[in-house]
From TrEMBL, chain A:
InterPro entries: Centromere_Cenp-M, P-loop_NTPase. Its main location: nucleus. Keywords: Centromere, Chromosome, Nucleus. It comes from Nesospiza acunhae. One of its GO terms (cellular component) is nucleus. This is Centromere protein M. The keyword DNA-binding does not apply. Gene3D superfamilies: P-loop containing nucleotide triphosphate hydrolases (3.40.50.300). It is found in: Chromosome, Centromere; Nucleus.
From TrEMBL, chain B:
The gene is Cenpl. Belongs to the CENP-L/IML3 family. GO terms for cellular component: chromosome, centromeric region; nucleus. Keywords: Centromere, Chromosome, Nucleus. It is found in: Chromosome, Centromere; Nucleus. Its main location: nucleus. It comes from the Eukaryota. PANTHER family: CENTROMERE PROTEIN L. Pfam families: CENP-L. This is Centromere protein L.
Amino acid sequence: HLATSLPLPSERDHLRPRIDMVVFMIDIKSKYSLKNVEASLAYLDARFFLGKVCFLVTGVGRVNACSIETNAICKLGETYCSPVIFCELELEGVRASTAQRLLRMLRICAGLIPGVSALSFVSLMRKSDGD
Amino acid sequence: EKADPQKTAFLLRKAWTLYSVTPLYGFRRARLRDYARLLGAFIAAEKQKGLAVEVGVELDIKVALSSLADIRGSELDQAALLVQLSSRSRGSSRNSEDKPVWWGWFCSVFGDELSENVPEHFTCLPLFLSHGAESYTALVGSWFQKTFDCCFRRLAISPLNLSWMVAMWAGCKLDRAASAVELVFSVPRLAQPLDISYAIHPEDAKALWDTVQKTPGEITQEEVDVFMDCLYAHFHRHFKIHLSAAKLVKISTAVALAHCDGIVKILHSQYLPGVLMLLTELAISQIQ
């Protein structure tokens, strides 16, 4: 399911399936996308931040088109205890591997991988980021 | 050499294309005349090969290399190096004048981060600015690359860095009446490309920056963000357009103009060192 911002319209609440993971997309070329994500974060139930949220930063291939400081995004990830993934969607290879990575995370968040919970996985990811 | 405003006046009000340059190996300041001769011979040889700069024009190119001693920041900085190409049409009498056709200069203003860590025999002049035909830039660039084993790369300026520049320079104190502060945005992903130009009265821009900046002489990313957010919010209130979703491509202030393709024009001699210091920093971060 794709949405341009949160909250999701309430009229369709009853038709919506269970949401297992939320990916907030930030375009590094658009300051507006960061502001939009920051505003939308307030509308997400706190329980999602236990490993069911990640930030996907796109457009990182073009360093010269940067409108957002990467520190600001990393700080956002730290504040909300969620991983930050940097990618370049315009490159087919990166697009495919990013999609696979998100799918693997989604399977964990949906509880489809026995023995691995969303929370344990995200703390594993954060530990390796810190090293 | 003492500070000579005449010597640096020609640097103002010209559109300079920016490059980052890796440290030069084996460069010796005492050999400037030799280098000028060698570069001149190289250009003449390339023209003979048929890589003519301008077709059908018979021009002799004369090369002059000189040092700009006052263009440096700290003791660690090397003095700037100027390369000037002049033309003299063939077959003319001895009272014909040399007409300058191309300028290029290397400089380092507070480039200590690079100079501190450089091994022996290397000269750090990370910022290169050129004005004139691109073909001459390519010739001079390739001679320097061959002779000093260095690497030139175009220096682009990101929207993030452009917003630093506009915040810094809009806040500069100027005695004369200043020109408007202008920001040009390019809107992506449209069938027809659209540019939005946002002009602000210089006094309003300075007043805004003065309320934002907490410590004079110091600028933080947060202050730049607040400054830009105010401008974006003001624009949105009037036109319902989110400029923060567009790409900032060019900024223009009374101090200097800068374009994201890496082209600057410095207008005010008082702020020349400050502008060069910022550009040196950008060049160094591109090299590293």
